[in-house]
Amino acid sequence: MELRHLLYFKMVAEELHFRKAAEKLFISQPPLSRQIKELEEELGAQLFTRNNKRVTLTSAGIYFKKEVEEILTRINKTKNTVKQIHDHLNGEFRIGYISSTYHPLLMEVLKEMRVHFPYLSIQLYELPTQKQIHALEEGKLDIGIMRAPIASTQLTLNTLFHDPFIAVLPANSPQFSSNAALGKYLAEKPFIFFNRDYAPAYHQKLVEICNRLGFSPQLSHEANNVHSILRLVESGAGVSILPHSLKEHYKYLQINFADLKNLSIYTEVVLAYKNNNHQEALQWFIKRYNPTPNRI
Amino acid sequence: MELRHLLYFKMVAEELHFRKAAEKLFISQPPLSRQIKELEEELGAQLFTRNNKRVTLTSAGIYFKKEVEEILTRINKTKNTVKQIHDHLNGEFRIGYISSTYHPLLMEVLKEMRVHFPYLSIQLYELPTQKQIHALEEGKLDIGIMRAPIASTQLTLNTLFHDPFIAVLPANSPQFSSNAALGKYLAEKPFIFFNRDYAPAYHQKLVEICNRLGFSPQLSHEANNVHSILRLVESGAGVSILPHSLKEHYKYLQINFADLKNLSIYTEVVLAYKNNNHQEALQWFIKRYNPTPNRI
DNA sequence: TATAATTGATAGTTTAAAAATATCAATTAC
DNA sequence: GTAATTGATATTTTTAAACTATCAATTATA
After folding, report:
1. Each residue of B148-195: pLDDT tens digit?
2. How many Å does it take to go from CA B17 to C1' D14?
3. What is the pTM of this model?
4. How far apart are CA B180 and CA B212, in angstroms?
5. How many CB atoms neighbour CB A187 within 10 A?
6. C1'-nearest nucleotide to the CA of A27
7. Is B45's CB within 8 Å of A71's CB?
């Protein structure tokens, strides 16, 4: 028995007409009759009754039809999945990340990943959260490192860590004994923000922090990149508030950091990927990529 | 793609060695390599890595192996079931019944059955309950009409009806106003019983009825067939107690019947067949054969 | 009722593809 | 460094699928 027999049988069972079935199968009628006969002989069961004018399924044939349909469906599904697994391991793997991602860890993980998946072309894209969400939904990214909240039912989220905030000040700034004193200082300086459209939720969070510190920020500069903001602060262009985890990665800059005490506002950094995506490289990345700095 | 490809793949995946696999498949190595290559091309996925000395499955191959094994198992199961359905419809159907079965109904059902299942050879066997149980368990009967109790975990039971008992007397017997009067009459007559070994539970029940009527029967004759018992009674050889339902079917005999009042002892008539037997003819018979005389 | 049309089966031929044989290059083991 | 072992390749042989032509049986229609 071969799949051909099953395929031919299915068509005859649907058409209940050898000539029509043969036509649909793009073969002539005699070989079809022959194949069905062979199948019946191998099974040791009659599948059709031929009244020389009317073809009908026997009980065995009815059962076989149901089974064959399921088997053929299963085979096709398997073929597709196998192709997917292959492509996922031999194609591209696109990672999105936000500018505030801790790069040394990511670079380390990528180095290992290239050894594990030698035929996979791994690509990095620095993108803001909103753009990552769309790219993930459209299948243009495989995984994204971004900030909550993520409003999408198509994506599965995986919390990496909760990050508190810290004030970023020029090198000549004084020390502050309280949030109030810090607030007073920040209120009088030009405030460097992330672009509102670029990261709306993040922007909103910063406004809330300022309010809690007792002031409304003077929105003087806008940037859409952590590095740019830090460079602006260093040059004395103003102050800002950024995720705490960055402090460790920018020690070489001539700036001061000032803790915000007892302020339970955090930014949540997550891994996001499309629901039901079980591709091997993705699963490997999720398992391996676990920065855990300042985890709460 | 053909089943051949799946079968060949499975063997190579198990052996991880083309020559050994080819040997086990009773073909030479080159065509095996060719078929696997064809399969990989059709799937668009590499299934094996060949390091010119070591064959291993890729991730896609590992997945495919699991699926192929399940698919091939499924196909084999389907083949067996189809054969079974065919054989059950084109082979024999053996029905066991006890002598007290109401024949006109059974004959009517069989007539219909032969129309419904024209290729089925339907065979009847009059057998006592115990022999039917063994025959069913051994697959020598497909269904049995018999009396409870049936002590077998291999059989599924289907109650047909509960039958009370009735006394069978010669034509010259008087009328009785009470069970006590009847008991007194029966006590003095030779009692015709079913053979004890032949139908032990039934025999036991009759003894209990006699006790309830206030006497111990004189076991003069034994028979193993309802018709024989009735003929013996008709000839004046003695009296007996039989299932009530028989009264309707032996009206032509020169005998009297005497009801046993308020005696809640019944014999249960059941259909019995092997557990998990879903053969079409059996299911049809169970559904159709439903005598319901004296149902309680 | 006779004739034409339609059905699946059969016979014989052609074609495609699976399998066999012989051999190769690459690797491993000793 | 040599022999043995591996899967791949080239070529031929064999198998079997598919084709064409035709048939007998049945049904529809005039």
Report:
1. 888 889 999 988 888 888 999 998 888 888 888 888 888 888 888 888
2. 26
3. 0.72
4. 9
5. 16
6. D18
7. no
